[in-house]
Write a structure and sequence with these properties.
It is globular, with a radius of gyration of 28 Å. About 45% of the residues are buried. It is about 5% helix and about 40% strand. It has about 575 residues and is mainly beta. The chain is built from 3 helices and 37 strands. Strand 36 and strand 37 form a beta hairpin. It starts with a helix and ends in a 9-residue tail after the last helix.
Amino acid sequence: MTLRTTFSRTVLFAVIALVAHSVNAAPTITVWYGANQSFGQLGNPQTAINILGNVSDPNGIQSLSYTLNGGSPVNLSRGPDSRRLLRQGDFNIDIYTTALNNGTNTIVITARNNLNETSTETVTVQYTAGQVWPHNYSINWNSATSINSVAQVVDGHWTLQSGIVKPTYLGYDRIVAIGSTTWTDYEVTVPITMRGIDPGGFGFPGGSPGVGLLFRWTGHTDNPISGAQPKTGYLPFGAIAWYAWENNNPSGTPRLKLVGNNLNTMQEDFSGLTLSYNVTYIFKMRVETIPGQGGVYKFKVWQQGQPEPSTWRLQGQSALTDPQSGSPCLLSHHVDAEFGNVTITPLAYVNMGLKAFLEGPYNSSTATMRTDLQPVLPAVQPYTTSPWSYVGVETIATIPSGAVDWVLLELRTGTASSTRVATRAALIKSNGVIVELDGSSPVTFGGISAGNYYVVIRHRNHLPIMSASPLSLTTSASLYDFTMSQSQAYGVSPMKEIVSGVFGMIAGDANSTNIITASDANGVFVDLNATNYNANDANMNRLVTDADANVVFQNINRSGQLP
């Protein structure tokens, strides 16, 4: 009896100890796509990367944070938040690609429960900078080792199986991004099979379930929702083409829709066409730039195995103020949907490599331009006012390393301004190379066929220049270097030899009249000691001084040679 009692007590104490250990266990951190992840190996489909996962603890989570490469801790939100964080304990670490090292990055996630017990999980991120996503691109899910090896999961837990990808859990804006933020004109084809919808997807904030494609998107922002972690703003974007249910009406008739930026309806299909569950349909969408007008979006859907319709079912045009570039995304909003193999075909576009120096910030001792303006460079291109009156909305979330300032580019089929066929803003870096908004890619002009074009570079306080002759532009970028010789630019002495053998755009045209006069110098004196982003700051060191007036006087009466 005594032995049996002693044995029973021993078992009981062991059980109690096991339960106590279980109750007092530290939080469990699950990183959905593994402890080793790679980004940028193909290019960047958005301005950020996302490390996704879930944290849980029976005692409750007191805090969750992460560090990047040993930096300061950043607090993480935990789901549910009715938007990007779907389930209890879900988290989404959003990190701008500009904050990553080229190479190995270490992210340490730390969770603390209500008993002050902590757990850590380390994620090693290999980031490859400067890659340009191939324009002709396709995904065969059967041969993909992981989703992130061929695309980039932005939100949610996705499953890769049997030649398809699908959201594991149904929720708000489950997104997989593909391609590049610099893509302009392209066509995407993908088979989609719907299995059902999330009945909780109606009402605020989701509105209604829908599934399809999102075009010309560069990543989450603070518009129209600000201050969230992860960022929850979904604007701006080019257009969404999808099959969607009526807002706030579970029994409403779903239909094909084409929705533009700011959720403006471009066109809806009222023909009575309905798509069935468990049937595969081919979704095809394209966007094509119409120079001077904006992007034209087209959308068609047909059942797999049936002939492709010869005409587009829906069509709409965006404004010039809407995004003119961005990646395509697979989008499943509260829909149980399976996405098949993806085919992406580029439409007409040209790439160009350009190099030029601005005289003002040029440093002869380093043979580069200063980047003092970086902390105050505007996020949106600054050429909206006269004399440029450019309406493009090129925007950068984070200023790329090495950026000096914004420039405005033109393509002309002849020398006269009336032959201009395209305009866009870009960034000029300290080494003189002009790049896309990602800080590394060659500049792309969408909606422009390969051919011969004069290339114009404008800057807000330097005289403009144009290539001496038409450049042969194709989808492959070849570098045209204005800095090599005066003869690289059109006109009579259009540039200045800023040091021996190095030529640059002439500084001092602060009022942008295409001629440098005493009026430009007067502007400097009026703004003496002004700081930040000021056109009278001729040497671009972020402070208007007498030195800027000296730059103007050295170039007095010089005028631009641009026709």
